Amino acid sequence: QVQLMESGGGVVQAGGSLRLSCVVSGITVSFNVMSWYRQAPGKQRELVASINSVGGTNYADSVKGRFTISRDNTKNIMYLQMNSLKPEDTAVYYCKALRSTNWGQGTQVTVSS
User: Fold this and answer.
1) What are residue 46's DSSP bridge partners?
2) I want to staple 26 with a disulfide (CB 3.0 to 4.6 A). Which of 2, 18, 77, 83 is the partner?
3) What is the model's pLDDT at position 30?
């Protein structure tokens, strides 16, 4: 069974940075498409970034140039480095494996103006 545990969220001022982590068990991250999603209050969950098995990445237009998705194959952990944060980045962030329907509990990111 795929299990995901996100961490690293917090409160940061606009322009600041955070790094989110997703500890994954049940699958090997390097063999799978892994993604970060976010859900802001009153909005639908949206895809933020993805990384595939060969390291190819994709980003939502709203985060391109500011966020970087990566993984540590030895630790089976996925990361999301978030720089130049904006108040509109405030949301609960989730990680997910494409092949699984499971979600983690999410980690709250709050960006103050």
Assistant:
1) 38
2) 2
3) 93
Please report the DSSP string for 9-62 in residue order: -EEEETT--EEEEEEEESS-GGGS-EEEEEE-TTS--EEEEEE-TTS-EEE-TT
Among candidates 2, 3, 18, which has minimal Cα distance to 79? 18
Amino acid at 66: R
The helix (run of H) or strand (run of E) holding residue 34 is: strand 34-39
What whole-number distance in Å separates Cα of residue 46 and Cα of residue 26? 24
- Tell me the per-residue pLDDT of 35-90, one tens digit each, with 9 for 90 and over: 999 999 999 999 999 999 999 999 999 999 999 999 999 999 999 999 999 999 99
